[in-house]
Specification:
Layout: H1 16-36, H2 40-50, E1 56-60, H3 63-77, E2 82-84, H4 87-90, E3 103-107, H5 114-117, H6 120-126, E4 129-134, H7 140-143, E5 147-150, H8 166-186, H9 190-195, H10 201-207, H11 210-213, E6 220-221, H12 227-237, E7 241-246, E8 249-255, H13 256-265, E9 279-280, E10 284-286, H14 291-300, E11 305-310, E12 315-321
Helix pairs in contact: 1-8, 2-8, 3-8
Length: 324
């Protein structure tokens, strides 16, 4: 028997890319709409957090809870002590984690999530303030908050307008906006960020000091040594440079590039003293300097190697190289 083959018509094909493009555009419009309606409430929320002497406690159920965990993590890593508390667990004992000086951020798009709403009487009895993040200004949560941040959206990008999609994105966006405002207000810098991220590549880079990565096998030579002798020193060190030293004091530096340029001008230079061709008063860097700062300086000034010094007398202790 032969199977009946159904021929697909052009209109039967679904353009997944176009659907995704439309979804992303709709979400970007929702975030822009949120930005356009930010007002005094947002300012009040930031001031409330800045003036909080305790911790920021984030609560949310379901998808709002997942977003809340992300918001709490962002706050904690950018200078605002924060943690997530599950509202259902809070109703069964975790309310004991709250201190009187803490500030609560309750998240519920409907503003009527049962587990979140049930927390309000206890929070008020404790004397804690509440920042509400919800999409309904007439909701129980909004009416019982000290500051209400409205994250309402026209509709979800879910074709059925059911699955939390656009609303969760906008909620996360308001959380990030609060975090950025607080970073600015607290004058929180990259080095501060690194203190809370010691395990990540960024943290390691920002916490690393020059002395952690510098080379200590210094290729050095006396000022009256010949260029020929200097070449042997540079070759053995495989660093492409040599330090000109007298009694442990830095007199200058010479690189393979210096020697190539000098050789083009003077073919007889191999027997001349190296101090004729060295760079006097080379740029140095302190061993305690942050590596990221040192690398930025070297890239900016197109320097491949820096002499590293330490102590009040700027004693030479190493060489810092970069290769990219």
């Amino acid at each position: 028997m032969f199977e009946t083959v159904r021929l697909l018509r052009r209109e039967d094909f679904i353009d997944h890319t176009e659907i995704a493009r439309e979804a992303l555009i709709a979400q970007s419009i929702a975030v822009k709409s949120l930005a356009n309606r930010l007002g005094d409430e947002f300012y009040q929320a930031v001031e409330l957090i800045l003036n909080c002497s305790g911790r920021l406690v984030i609560c949310g159920m379901g998808k709002s809870g997942l977003v809340g965990k992300k918001i709490a993590a962002t706050f904690a890593s950018t200078g605002t002590t924060s943690f997530f508390m599950h509202p259902a667990e809070a109703l069964h004992g975790d309310l004991g984690m709250i201190r009187q000086e803490d500030l609560l951020v309750l998240i519920s798009y409907s503003g009527e999530t049962e587990e979140v709403i049930k927390l309000i009487p206890s929070i008020k009895a404790f004397g804690n303030s509440i920042i509400a993040i919800a999409g309904n200004s007439n909701s129980t949560l909004a009416k019982n908050s000290d500051v209400f941040l409205n994250v309402s959206v026209e509709r979800e990008i879910c074709p059925n307008n059911l699955a939390p999609t656009t609303s969760t994105l906008v909620t996360m966006a308001i959380g990030d906006a609060l975090a950025v405002a607080l970073i600015k207000a607290r004058d929180f810098h990259a080095t501060d960020f690194a203190r809370f991220h010691p395990g990540g590549s960024l943290g390691k880079r920002l916490l690393t000091r020059v002395h952690d990565v510098m080379r200590t096998n210094l290729p050095s030579i006396e000022p009256n040594a010949t260029v020929r002798e200097c070449l042997f020193t540079m070759t053995s060190s495989r660093m492409g440079l040599a330090l000109i030293m007298t009694d442990g004091k830095l007199q200058g530096i010479i690189t393979d590039g210096d020697l190539r340029r000098a050789l083009l001008k003077d073919p007889q230079m191999l027997e001349k003293p190296v101090n004729v061709f060295m760079t006097r008063k080379p740029v140095t860097i302190d061993a305690e300097t942050n590596l990221a700062e040192a690398e930025a300086f070297m890239h900016r000034n197109k320097v491949r190697a820096l002499v590293v010094t330490s102590g009040k007398e700027n004693q030479v202790c190493g060489i810092l190289e970069i290769f990219d």
